[in-house]
Amino acid sequence: RITLSDRRFHEGIGCFEEYDNISEFSFAEIREKSLIDGIYNALLHFQEIRTYFERKERMLRLVKQAKQQQEWKLKNEKNIATESTEIEDEKVIEGRVGEEVDKEKNEGTREKRRRLKK
Fold it and tell me: Could you tell me the residue ranges of all domains in the chain?
């Protein structure tokens, strides 16, 4: 006995057969219909099983993905914080060096101007 998620159940595949004394044609027709119904019910059941497992796998994958994203964010927030302080320190150092170079250039040009004026 197979019970489906919507509370339907199936007992066996192609279990319905009815004998009719009128002709062999009616017996063959009923047998074919019962076989088709049984195959349809079995395939429907397997489709429901497949969708159940697909949903279950998808949910597991989404939970795992969310966990990995959270770990990545926590890890990178620490890295970004340390990198940003290092970059700010480098900018301060570069700014000081740049100011000193500008002062030297200005002093050099001032001296040249004084020489030319003399």
Answer: 2-117
Distance of CA 7 to CAs 1, 2, 3, 4, 101, Å? 12, 10, 6, 5, 83
How many whole angstroms separate alpha carbon 100 and alpha carbon 12?
Answer: 91
Tens digit of pLDDT for each residue in 69-113? 999 888 888 776 666 666 555 555 555 545 555 565 566 666 666
CA 67 from centroid of its chain's CA atoms: 12
Q: Look up the pTM and report it.
A: 0.36
9 forms beta bridges with: 3
CB atoms within 10 A of CB 66: 10
Contact 17, 36 (CB under 8 A): no
Contacts of 41 (CB under 8 A, 6+ apart): 10, 13
